[in-house]
Protein backbone atom coordinates (compact mmCIF):
# COMPACT_ATOMS: atom_id res chain seq x y z
CA UNK A 1 0.00 0.00 0.00
CA UNK A 2 2.83 2.42 0.88
CA UNK A 3 4.45 1.69 -2.51
CA UNK A 4 1.21 2.40 -4.36
CA UNK A 5 0.75 5.64 -2.43
CA UNK A 6 4.24 6.75 -3.46
CA UNK A 7 3.53 6.13 -7.15
CA UNK A 8 0.25 8.02 -6.85
CA UNK A 9 2.08 11.02 -5.39
CA UNK A 10 4.69 10.97 -8.20
CA UNK A 11 1.93 10.70 -10.84
CA UNK A 12 0.12 13.65 -9.26
CA UNK A 13 3.35 15.69 -9.31
CA UNK A 14 3.85 14.91 -13.00
CA UNK A 15 0.26 15.83 -13.83
CA UNK A 16 0.61 19.14 -11.99
CA UNK A 17 3.80 19.86 -13.92
CA UNK A 18 2.15 19.18 -17.26
CA UNK A 19 -0.58 21.65 -16.34
CA UNK A 20 2.16 24.13 -15.30
CA UNK A 21 0.81 24.01 -11.76
CA UNK A 22 4.03 22.56 -10.40
CA UNK A 23 5.44 25.97 -9.53
CA UNK A 24 5.61 27.42 -6.04
CA UNK A 25 5.67 30.86 -4.41
CA UNK A 26 9.22 32.18 -4.30
CA UNK A 27 11.05 33.45 -1.23
CA UNK A 28 14.31 35.34 -0.93
CA UNK A 29 17.30 34.09 -2.91
CA UNK A 30 19.04 33.42 0.39
CA UNK A 31 16.27 31.06 1.50
CA UNK A 32 16.41 29.21 -1.79
CA UNK A 33 20.18 28.96 -1.56
CA UNK A 34 20.06 27.57 1.97
CA UNK A 35 17.59 24.86 0.97
CA UNK A 36 19.69 23.93 -2.08
CA UNK A 37 22.89 23.69 -0.03
CA UNK A 38 21.18 21.51 2.56
CA UNK A 39 19.94 19.19 -0.19
CA UNK A 40 23.47 18.77 -1.57
CA UNK A 41 24.61 17.67 1.88
CA UNK A 42 21.75 15.15 1.96
CA UNK A 43 22.81 13.94 -1.48
CA UNK A 44 26.30 13.30 -0.09
CA UNK A 45 24.91 11.58 3.00
CA UNK A 46 22.70 9.38 0.82
CA UNK A 47 25.74 7.49 -0.51
CA UNK A 48 28.04 5.00 1.20
CA UNK A 49 31.10 7.16 0.47
CA UNK A 50 31.95 10.87 0.43
CA UNK A 51 30.86 11.49 -3.15
CA UNK A 52 27.57 13.14 -4.06
CA UNK A 53 24.72 10.98 -5.33
CA UNK A 54 24.22 11.35 -9.07
CA UNK A 55 20.54 12.10 -8.52
CA UNK A 56 17.39 11.23 -6.66
CA UNK A 57 15.04 9.15 -8.81
CA UNK A 58 11.51 10.19 -7.85
CA UNK A 59 9.78 7.49 -9.87
CA UNK A 60 11.74 4.67 -8.21
CA UNK A 61 12.18 6.44 -4.86
CA UNK A 62 15.92 5.82 -4.71
CA UNK A 63 19.23 7.61 -4.78
CA UNK A 64 21.68 6.87 -7.60
CA UNK A 65 25.32 6.10 -6.72
CA UNK A 66 28.01 8.77 -6.31
CA UNK A 67 29.03 10.54 -9.50
CA UNK A 68 32.70 11.60 -9.68
CA UNK A 69 32.22 14.02 -12.60
CA UNK A 70 29.71 16.35 -11.01
CA UNK A 71 30.94 15.86 -7.46
CA UNK A 72 34.07 17.50 -8.87
CA UNK A 73 32.36 20.77 -9.63
CA UNK A 74 30.03 20.67 -6.64
CA UNK A 75 33.17 21.19 -4.51
CA UNK A 76 33.80 24.85 -5.46
CA UNK A 77 30.09 25.62 -5.16
CA UNK A 78 29.96 24.43 -1.56
CA UNK A 79 33.21 26.24 -0.75
CA UNK A 80 31.70 29.42 -2.18
CA UNK A 81 28.56 28.86 -0.14
CA UNK A 82 30.61 28.37 3.04
CA UNK A 83 32.02 31.85 2.41
CA UNK A 84 28.63 33.24 1.39
CA UNK A 85 26.76 32.00 4.45
CA UNK A 86 29.61 31.78 6.94
CA UNK A 87 28.94 28.10 7.66
CA UNK A 88 32.07 25.89 7.74
CA UNK A 89 30.02 22.68 7.42
CA UNK A 90 29.85 23.20 3.68
CA UNK A 91 33.61 23.61 3.26
CA UNK A 92 34.16 20.51 5.40
CA UNK A 93 31.77 18.53 3.21
CA UNK A 94 33.44 19.84 0.06
CA UNK A 95 36.89 18.82 1.25
CA UNK A 96 35.63 15.33 2.08
CA UNK A 97 34.37 15.18 -1.51
CA UNK A 98 37.78 16.28 -2.77
CA UNK A 99 39.63 13.62 -0.77
CA UNK A 100 37.21 11.04 -2.13
CA UNK A 101 37.91 12.26 -5.69
CA UNK A 102 41.62 11.67 -5.12
CA UNK A 103 40.91 8.20 -3.73
CA UNK A 104 38.84 7.14 -6.76
CA UNK A 105 41.00 8.77 -9.44
CA UNK A 106 41.93 6.30 -12.17
CA UNK A 107 45.50 4.91 -12.19
CA UNK A 108 46.17 6.80 -15.45
CA UNK A 109 45.13 10.12 -13.88
CA UNK A 110 41.75 10.33 -15.58
CA UNK A 111 38.26 10.24 -14.07
CA UNK A 112 35.88 7.41 -14.74
CA UNK A 113 32.76 7.64 -16.87
CA UNK A 114 29.41 7.33 -15.12
CA UNK A 115 28.71 6.68 -11.47
CA UNK A 116 30.58 4.43 -9.09
CA UNK A 117 28.16 1.68 -10.10
CA UNK A 118 29.08 1.95 -13.82
CA UNK A 119 31.16 -0.87 -15.27
CA UNK A 120 33.73 -0.96 -16.69
CA UNK A 121 35.49 1.98 -15.06
CA UNK A 122 37.14 3.83 -17.94
CA UNK A 123 38.71 7.29 -17.99
CA UNK A 124 36.86 9.88 -20.04
CA UNK A 125 37.75 13.39 -21.12
CA UNK A 126 34.76 15.45 -20.06
CA UNK A 127 34.51 13.93 -16.58
CA UNK A 128 38.21 14.50 -15.98
CA UNK A 129 37.88 18.13 -16.99
CA UNK A 130 35.08 18.72 -14.51
CA UNK A 131 36.95 17.21 -11.57
CA UNK A 132 39.77 19.71 -12.19
CA UNK A 133 37.49 22.38 -10.71
CA UNK A 134 37.20 20.54 -7.41
CA UNK A 135 40.87 19.61 -7.16
CA UNK A 136 41.96 23.17 -7.89
CA UNK A 137 39.61 24.56 -5.26
CA UNK A 138 40.68 22.00 -2.65
CA UNK A 139 44.31 22.92 -3.33
CA UNK A 140 43.49 26.60 -2.96
CA UNK A 141 41.63 25.98 0.29
CA UNK A 142 44.23 23.73 1.92
CA UNK A 143 47.56 23.99 0.08
CA UNK A 144 47.92 20.22 0.46
CA UNK A 145 50.27 18.48 -2.00
CA UNK A 146 47.74 15.64 -2.25
CA UNK A 147 45.43 17.85 -4.27
CA UNK A 148 48.18 19.35 -6.41
CA UNK A 149 49.44 15.91 -7.34
CA UNK A 150 45.96 14.73 -8.31
CA UNK A 151 45.32 17.93 -10.27
CA UNK A 152 48.55 17.58 -12.24
CA UNK A 153 47.91 13.91 -12.98
CA UNK A 154 44.43 14.69 -14.31
CA UNK A 155 45.55 17.68 -16.36
CA UNK A 156 48.50 15.77 -17.81
CA UNK A 157 46.17 12.93 -18.82
CA UNK A 158 44.00 15.43 -20.70
CA UNK A 159 47.03 16.77 -22.56
CA UNK A 160 48.03 13.24 -23.58
CA UNK A 161 44.47 12.53 -24.76
CA UNK A 162 44.21 15.70 -26.88
CA UNK A 163 44.65 15.58 -30.66
CA UNK A 164 47.13 18.01 -32.28
CA UNK A 165 44.33 20.25 -33.59
CA UNK A 166 42.96 20.72 -30.06
CA UNK A 167 39.96 18.41 -30.32
CA UNK A 168 39.43 15.51 -27.94
CA UNK A 169 38.24 12.62 -30.12
CA UNK A 170 39.48 9.77 -27.98
CA UNK A 171 38.16 8.75 -24.57
CA UNK A 172 34.63 10.01 -25.10
CA UNK A 173 32.19 8.68 -22.53
CA UNK A 174 30.81 5.23 -23.45
CA UNK A 175 27.50 6.49 -22.05
CA UNK A 176 27.05 8.86 -25.03
CA UNK A 177 27.33 8.42 -28.79
CA UNK A 178 29.04 11.75 -29.35
CA UNK A 179 31.97 11.43 -31.78
CA UNK A 180 33.54 14.77 -30.98
CA UNK A 181 32.09 17.20 -28.46
CA UNK A 182 32.30 20.94 -28.91
CA UNK A 183 31.00 21.26 -25.34
CA UNK A 184 34.47 20.11 -24.28
CA UNK A 185 35.31 23.81 -24.21
CA UNK A 186 34.07 23.33 -20.65
CA UNK A 187 36.96 20.87 -20.20
CA UNK A 188 39.28 23.55 -21.59
CA UNK A 189 37.95 25.86 -18.87
CA UNK A 190 38.99 23.22 -16.33
CA UNK A 191 42.52 23.37 -17.76
CA UNK A 192 42.47 27.13 -17.21
CA UNK A 193 41.90 26.42 -13.53
CA UNK A 194 44.81 23.95 -13.59
CA UNK A 195 47.02 26.62 -15.17
CA UNK A 196 45.98 29.16 -12.55
CA UNK A 197 46.88 26.71 -9.78
CA UNK A 198 50.22 25.53 -11.16
CA UNK A 199 51.43 28.24 -13.59
CA UNK A 200 52.13 25.41 -16.06
CA UNK A 201 51.66 27.13 -19.42
CA UNK A 202 51.01 23.81 -21.17
CA UNK A 203 47.55 23.73 -19.64
CA UNK A 204 46.56 27.17 -20.89
CA UNK A 205 47.98 26.34 -24.32
CA UNK A 206 45.93 23.14 -24.48
CA UNK A 207 42.80 25.04 -23.44
CA UNK A 208 43.47 27.59 -26.17
CA UNK A 209 43.94 24.88 -28.80
CA UNK A 210 40.64 23.24 -27.95
CA UNK A 211 38.63 26.46 -28.03
CA UNK A 212 40.29 27.51 -31.28
CA UNK A 213 39.27 24.16 -32.80
CA UNK A 214 35.69 24.52 -31.52
CA UNK A 215 35.46 28.05 -32.91
CA UNK A 216 36.62 26.78 -36.31
CA UNK A 217 33.53 24.56 -36.47
CA UNK A 218 30.99 27.30 -35.58
CA UNK A 219 28.36 28.51 -38.02
CA UNK A 220 28.13 32.21 -38.84
CA UNK A 221 25.24 32.62 -36.37
CA UNK A 222 27.28 31.09 -33.53
CA UNK A 223 25.70 27.63 -33.72
CA UNK A 224 28.05 24.77 -32.83
CA UNK A 225 27.80 21.31 -34.40
CA UNK A 226 28.48 18.22 -32.29
CA UNK A 227 27.21 19.99 -29.22
CA UNK A 228 24.68 17.59 -27.75
CA UNK A 229 24.70 14.41 -25.69
CA UNK A 230 24.35 11.21 -27.64
CA UNK A 231 23.25 12.61 -31.00
CA UNK A 232 24.88 12.11 -34.40
CA UNK A 233 22.56 14.58 -36.17
CA UNK A 234 23.06 18.30 -35.90
CA UNK A 235 19.41 19.31 -35.95
CA UNK A 236 19.26 20.47 -32.33
CA UNK A 237 21.27 20.82 -29.12
CA UNK A 238 20.42 20.64 -25.46
CA UNK A 239 20.42 23.92 -23.55
CA UNK A 240 22.62 22.20 -20.96
CA UNK A 241 25.43 21.53 -23.45
CA UNK A 242 24.97 24.87 -25.23
CA UNK A 243 25.58 26.54 -21.87
CA UNK A 244 28.61 24.33 -21.18
CA UNK A 245 30.18 25.31 -24.49
CA UNK A 246 29.40 29.00 -24.02
CA UNK A 247 31.07 29.04 -20.59
CA UNK A 248 34.19 27.53 -22.10
CA UNK A 249 34.44 30.22 -24.77
CA UNK A 250 33.82 32.91 -22.19
CA UNK A 251 36.31 31.75 -19.56
CA UNK A 252 39.11 30.74 -21.92
CA UNK A 253 38.56 34.01 -23.75
CA UNK A 254 38.80 35.94 -20.49
CA UNK A 255 41.95 34.03 -19.46
CA UNK A 256 43.77 34.47 -22.78
CA UNK A 257 42.38 37.83 -23.85
CA UNK A 258 41.19 36.29 -27.12
CA UNK A 259 38.44 38.55 -28.48
CA UNK A 260 37.28 35.94 -30.97
CA UNK A 261 36.37 33.55 -28.16
CA UNK A 262 34.54 36.28 -26.27
CA UNK A 263 32.68 37.30 -29.42
CA UNK A 264 31.54 33.70 -29.87
CA UNK A 265 30.30 33.63 -26.27
CA UNK A 266 28.37 36.84 -26.90
CA UNK A 267 26.80 35.46 -30.10
CA UNK A 268 25.61 32.39 -28.25
CA UNK A 269 24.40 34.42 -25.26
CA UNK A 270 22.39 36.78 -27.48
CA UNK A 271 20.82 33.87 -29.32
CA UNK A 272 19.77 32.21 -26.07
CA UNK A 273 18.42 35.49 -24.74
CA UNK A 274 16.20 35.73 -27.82
CA UNK A 275 14.97 32.18 -27.17
CA UNK A 276 14.09 32.96 -23.54
CA UNK A 277 10.35 32.94 -22.75
CA UNK A 278 8.60 35.74 -20.91
CA UNK A 279 8.52 33.63 -17.74
CA UNK A 280 12.35 33.32 -17.78
CA UNK A 281 12.58 29.73 -18.98
CA UNK A 282 14.53 28.47 -21.97
CA UNK A 283 13.57 25.67 -24.37
CA UNK A 284 15.16 22.32 -23.54
CA UNK A 285 16.50 22.04 -27.09
CA UNK A 286 17.27 24.66 -29.73
CA UNK A 287 17.69 24.12 -33.46
CA UNK A 288 20.54 25.56 -35.59
CA UNK A 289 18.54 28.77 -36.08
CA UNK A 290 18.41 29.07 -32.27
CA UNK A 291 14.67 28.42 -32.18
CA UNK A 292 13.10 26.37 -29.43
CA UNK A 293 12.65 22.77 -30.60
CA UNK A 294 10.59 21.44 -27.65
CA UNK A 295 7.93 22.72 -25.26
CA UNK A 296 9.68 21.66 -22.04
CA UNK A 297 12.59 23.37 -20.29
CA UNK A 298 15.96 22.03 -19.11
CA UNK A 299 16.12 23.37 -15.55
CA UNK A 300 19.88 22.88 -15.36
CA UNK A 301 20.38 24.84 -18.57
CA UNK A 302 18.32 27.74 -17.22
CA UNK A 303 20.69 28.14 -14.27
CA UNK A 304 23.80 27.66 -16.40
CA UNK A 305 22.66 30.39 -18.76
CA UNK A 306 21.99 32.68 -15.79
CA UNK A 307 25.62 32.15 -14.75
CA UNK A 308 26.81 32.85 -18.30
CA UNK A 309 24.82 36.07 -18.61
CA UNK A 310 26.04 37.28 -15.21
CA UNK A 311 29.64 36.47 -16.11
CA UNK A 312 29.29 38.38 -19.37
CA UNK A 313 27.98 41.34 -17.38
CA UNK A 314 31.16 41.15 -15.29
CA UNK A 315 33.52 40.73 -18.24
CA UNK A 316 31.85 43.32 -20.51
CA UNK A 317 30.47 45.71 -17.92
CA UNK A 318 27.16 45.43 -19.81
CA UNK A 319 24.31 45.26 -17.31
CA UNK A 320 21.73 44.39 -19.98
CA UNK A 321 22.64 40.73 -19.52
CA UNK A 322 21.54 40.80 -15.88
CA UNK A 323 17.78 40.96 -16.54
CA UNK A 324 17.95 37.68 -18.49
CA UNK A 325 19.81 36.01 -15.63
CA UNK A 326 17.43 37.25 -12.97
CA UNK A 327 14.41 36.07 -14.99
CA UNK A 328 15.93 32.59 -15.35
CA UNK A 329 16.76 32.49 -11.65
CA UNK A 330 13.26 33.49 -10.59
CA UNK A 331 11.73 30.88 -12.86
CA UNK A 332 13.93 28.14 -11.36
CA UNK A 333 13.22 29.41 -7.85
CA UNK A 334 9.54 28.77 -8.55
CA UNK A 335 10.33 25.12 -9.35
CA UNK A 336 12.19 24.48 -6.08
CA UNK A 337 9.91 22.92 -3.48
CA UNK A 338 10.71 24.44 -0.08
CA UNK A 339 7.61 23.32 1.83
CA UNK A 340 7.49 19.59 1.16
CA UNK A 341 8.17 17.16 4.02
CA UNK A 342 10.03 14.88 1.58
CA UNK A 343 13.74 15.32 2.41
CA UNK A 344 14.73 13.69 -0.87
CA UNK A 345 13.15 16.53 -2.84
CA UNK A 346 13.07 19.58 -0.58
CA UNK A 347 15.53 22.16 -1.87
CA UNK A 348 16.45 20.18 -5.02
CA UNK A 349 16.08 21.16 -8.66
CA UNK A 350 14.77 18.64 -11.17
CA UNK A 351 16.40 17.89 -14.49
CA UNK A 352 13.46 18.99 -16.60
CA UNK A 353 10.14 20.73 -16.21
CA UNK A 354 7.78 18.94 -16.51
CA UNK A 355 9.39 16.30 -14.34
CA UNK A 356 9.06 13.49 -16.89
CA UNK A 357 10.47 15.43 -19.87
CA UNK A 358 13.39 14.15 -21.89
CA UNK A 359 16.40 15.46 -19.93
CA UNK A 360 16.98 13.44 -16.73
CA UNK A 361 13.30 12.38 -16.58
CA UNK A 362 11.95 11.87 -13.05
CA UNK A 363 15.36 12.79 -11.64
CA UNK A 364 16.73 15.48 -9.35
CA UNK A 365 20.38 15.52 -10.53
CA UNK A 366 22.97 17.03 -8.22
CA UNK A 367 24.29 19.34 -10.95
CA UNK A 368 20.90 21.03 -11.41
CA UNK A 369 21.08 22.16 -7.79
CA UNK A 370 24.79 23.04 -8.08
CA UNK A 371 24.27 25.42 -11.02
CA UNK A 372 21.19 26.90 -9.38
CA UNK A 373 23.34 27.82 -6.38
CA UNK A 374 26.09 29.25 -8.60
CA UNK A 375 23.56 31.44 -10.39
CA UNK A 376 21.94 32.77 -7.23
CA UNK A 377 25.26 33.45 -5.52
CA UNK A 378 26.60 35.26 -8.57
CA UNK A 379 23.44 37.35 -8.74
CA UNK A 380 23.45 38.37 -5.07
CA UNK A 381 27.17 38.70 -4.28
CA UNK A 382 29.23 41.85 -4.99
CA UNK A 383 29.76 42.61 -8.71
CA UNK A 384 33.41 41.52 -8.69
CA UNK A 385 32.81 38.22 -6.88
CA UNK A 386 34.75 35.30 -8.40
CA UNK A 387 32.47 32.65 -9.92
CA UNK A 388 32.50 28.98 -9.04
CA UNK A 389 33.56 26.38 -11.57
UniProtKB/TrEMBL annotation:
Pfam families: Beta-AFase-like_GH127_cat. It comes from the Bacteria. Residues 70-274 form the Non-reducing end beta-L-arabinofuranosidase-like GH127 catalytic domain. SUPFAM superfamilies: Six-hairpin glycosidases, Terpenoid cyclases/Protein prenyltransferases. Signal peptide: none annotated. This is Beta-L-arabinofuranosidase domain-containing protein.
